[in-house]
Amino acid sequence: MKDKGFIIIIAIGAAIVYVAMHFSGGGTLDKDTPWTLSQKKDAVSGYYEKDVLGHRVLNFNPLSLHQAKTLWSQTPTAGEMASALPDFDLAEAKAKNGIVDGAFKRFFLEYLDRLKGRFLSGEIRADQTPDAVRNLQ
């Protein structure tokens, strides 16, 4: 009889854990809940520093290029670049001033130049350029 009571308690406990995890999101990062949004913000905020003039600049130098590309869309800098488009000269100036020199900055400036070529050739429209910059498509 004691064994049945123990099994019932375990089953009830498992059911409670399942329901709690299922309805709370279970701490997964694939949903944009307030918790995950704050985690994403914290994930990129550590890559900002102040330049000599006191301006906030993005420094992805501690990361590999792949890691930097993965985090890029979550940064405020990506949004700033996207809002500058389709003015590619303004976006380039923002990138030169807002990203610390390194592999990611070189990649991004080359990417921006290729994107400008695609835009000028008619391959993409002006309204598609912000998403292309945010998502590095």
Highlighted features:
137 residues, mainly alpha, 2 domains, two-stranded antiparallel sheet, 7 helices, 4% strand
Description of the structure:
Helix content is 64%, strand content 4%. It is mostly helical and 137 residues long. It folds into 2 domains: 1-28; 32-135, no CATH class. The chain has a two-stranded antiparallel ribbon. The chain is elongated, with a radius of gyration of 22 Å. Mean pLDDT is 81; it is low at 25-41.
The tally of structural domains comes to 2
N-to-C SSE string, H for helix and E for strand: HHEEHHHHH
- What is the overall shape? elongated
N- to C-terminal distance: 63 Å
Using only C-alpha atoms, the radius of gyration works out to 22 Å
Short description:
The chain has 137 residues and is mostly helical. It has seven helices and two strands.
SSE order and pairing:
Blueprint: H1 2-24, H2 34-45, E1 48-50, E2 56-58, H3 65-72, H4 76-84, H5 88-98, H6 103-120, H7 129-135
Helix pairs in contact: 4-5, 4-7, 5-6
